[in-house]
Amino acid sequence: MNREYKIYKITYFLMAVNVITYLYTSLKYGLSMSAMQGIQVGGFNPLYVYYYHEYYRMITANFIHFGLMHIFCNCYSLLNFGSVMEYLLGQKRYTIVMIASMLATTIFPCALYLINGSGANSVMGGISGAIFGLMGALLALAMKFKSVYAYVFKQIASSVIL
Fold first, then answer.
1. Using an 8 Å Cβ cutoff, are 132 and 101 in contact?
2. What sign does the dihedral 22-67-15-45 (CA atoms) show?
3. What mean pLDDT do residues 27-56 have?
């Protein structure tokens, strides 16, 4: 890991925030949280955003994890896929894609709640939605620049399927 944290600053920063948040919630609630405990520490629920105007949940939910396997899988995926995307996109574009992906992960469930009331009894957390946003960005690159990014996308697609 020869000083990769200096090359992939954003990815390692996001991983650090995830781990620190998980350590905090583990000390507070144990290794896995209930849905209500997740709400107390910033998990996403459309009712809290819509009725109580707690818009911070649209970002904080990305850093809340509900168990050891949840945090491990998300950080592992972020390390492997995030570092590749940070290298390909550069730090500025990578940051923009990550923020847009984090917001999209929560904006769409809010919109679904407003349209048909779904999701009122659910609590969401984890950075996997942002990771899927990165996959969408890579797919867009692969479609636009087939000769450059298609091979990278094919290599990662098998991991996505798994």
1. yes
2. negative
3. 95
